[in-house]
Design goal:
- Residues 69-199 form the AMIN-like domain.
- Residues 1-29 form the signal peptide.
- This is AMIN-like domain-containing protein.
- The protein is mainly β and 201 residues long.
- The chain is built from 1 helix and 11 strands.
- It has one helix at residues 2-21; strands spanning 60-62, 70-77, 81-88, 95-100, 103-104, 111-112, 118-124, 154-163, 166-173, 179-185, 191-198.
- A 5-stranded antiparallel beta sheet has the order 1-4-7-9-8, with no helix packed on it. The protein has a 4-stranded antiparallel beta sheet with strand order 2-3-11-10, with no helix packed on it.
- Strand 2 and strand 3 form a beta hairpin.
Length: 201
Amino acid sequence: MKAIRTIRKPIRTAIAVLAVAAVPAGAVAIPAIAGGTATASTTAASTATSCSTKWGSLPKASSPLGRGTLTGIRTGRHACFDRIVFDVSGKQSGSHVRYVSNVYQDGSGFRVPLRGGAKLEIIAHVPDYNDAGRSTYRPANRKELTNVAGYRTFRQVAYAGSFEGQTTIGLGVRARLPFRVFTVAGPGSGSRIVVDVAHTW
């Protein structure tokens, strides 16, 4: 009987090791949007089915007109999607997001070159200037608003202008993939427009 007890312990240990190894390395939970920081981190483990989406790739729009101004654009990587966030210094604002053949600059009509197999036109219903005409969002490089090197889905984020109370951004993505759009209140009196593009269907 003593020999049997000695054998059982290694067997239980081996089973536990195999159970841990069976958890997918990329299966991680998605954290909440941070108030003023890029949301590129991941946290505790979850199931691989968390990456299933039913967002679709058809145009998505919401109607509220913005009462603030655009103050920043940032991106982040997540386990199941890439995210772009528009920071707004005012109440929740509407947007219009759709896949297009090309994105064109507001006013001039010039085509905005974008890397990737598909292009998303993101129109935020807020300007990037205040009532006095002063810029509230001034990117250092309009062709590369954020660095998306190494992202699974995003390929390029480019500025397409701000005209008549709305701001247009061109988002180059790897392929025509599902996406969702929503708004978040805060921090403080501000708000955010969020666009997530899935890594896969």
